[in-house]
Amino acid sequence: xxxxxxxxxxxxxxxxxxxxxxxxxxxxxxxxxxxxxxxxxxxxxxxxxxxxxxxxxxxxxxxxxxxxxxxxxxxxxxxxxxxxxxxxxxxxxxxxxxxxxxxxxxxxxxxxxxxxxxxxxxxxxxxxxxxxxxxxxxxxxxxxxxxxxxxxxxxxxxxxxxxxxxxxxxxxxxxxxxxxxxxxxxxxxxxxxxxxxxxxxxxxxxxxxxxxxxxxxxxxxxxxxxxxxxxxxxxxxxxxxxxxxxxxxxxxxxxxxxxxxxxxxxxxxxxxxxxxxxxxxxxxxxxxxxxxxxxxxxxxxxxxxxxxxxxxxxxxxxxxxxxxxxxxxxxxxxxxxxxxxxxxxxxxxxxxxxxxxxxxxxxxxxxxxxxxxxxxxxxxxxxxxxxxxxxxxxxxxxxxxxxxxxxxxxxxxxxxxxxxxxxxxxxxxxxxxxxxxxxxxxxxxxxxxxxxxxxxxxxxxxxxxxxxxx
Length: 470
Description:
The protein has helices spanning about 20-30, 45-55, 80-90, 110-125, 135-140, 165-170, 175-180, 190-205, 210-220, 220-240, 245-260, 270, 280-290, 325-330, 345-360, 405-415, 460-465; strands at about 35-40, 60-65, 100-105, 130-135, 155, 295-300, 310-320, 370-375, 380-385, 385-390, 390-400, 420-425, 430-440, 445-455. The chain is of the alpha/beta class and about 475 residues long.
């Protein structure tokens, strides 16, 4: 076997701030620590995050990639973790010392037996820091023939860079800090608002896939980001071969293209392909959700927590993995940074907010999206997202510009007997109390409510801002 020194520690020539590193730092010092498995879609930066974490927090780092070096897989056929570590120590010619060594098993999905072996590391060498990661892990975990080490591993979830992480990556850390410190008591600077909107437009087309962001930072060329986005989308489609039969791959390709063109719209199977049975198409949607290429926002009619009450599994809308990839699928290019408006302007705004809501969830929770709609004759209404913060439900309306009606939001508040609504748009932040007459069916109801109106780019700060309401 040919192992070079870079298998032991991979040097990093590019630093990218990821908020999940604080979770990893907490895990490092926690007394009840368990082996960690990082879950996420292909190329969201799982390997990079672990390598950067190792560089900052450990004196020794050993990486085993079970895809690139399949000969290493047989190491995990044993139940004796100390014997496994002895063999790793010899192979990599380095000591494995609990407390100072981070052992990283990358692409662990290629050998499910290695997942089961994590329980023995936890039981036999609990002081060892061990992290595993891989793409398509949801498929592996759902189809494992081995016993899952329940209670002996912990999970965290990683997504593309959110907008705050993007600002830091492109050298706008102070803008990020400004957003994190804003409260309603301070007037928001119109000058900074315009500057942040410019960065937001850039994010809409670059997105948050780490390799794409890195290319833009290093070259400043959008043409280079498009090339890498094309490589990523091609690899995502190539992965379909791992999901099922040739027919299933065809169905997933049709669903993926449909989803890119219909972000935030209720799925209608006939619109995907009238020749394919709806059961096959639903299966394709669920497989793409398992691969984390798509997030499926479920319709909920819940009036109180939990949001999962009264969820309709047959009514959902797709949200893409990454806004930059969604634009690439649709062949939409950023021609003029001052002109965000396209035919898909509203779709992009809804994609952005959905992506930010997902990324803002606690890293140890598998984030889900929900929305509400009512389809009645002459009384249709739809709320883009329903979120839960501290056991309270909040309806969210997303607007691509500065204006737009709030009819659906008001109808929802009346129907659910709630009094706080949230709007995201491109205007300056504000919060105010309003009283309006809302017509429901044949009656008029006076609604007294508080409207929290925030620019799109403040979505990740919503929980903090709600706690600071005047």
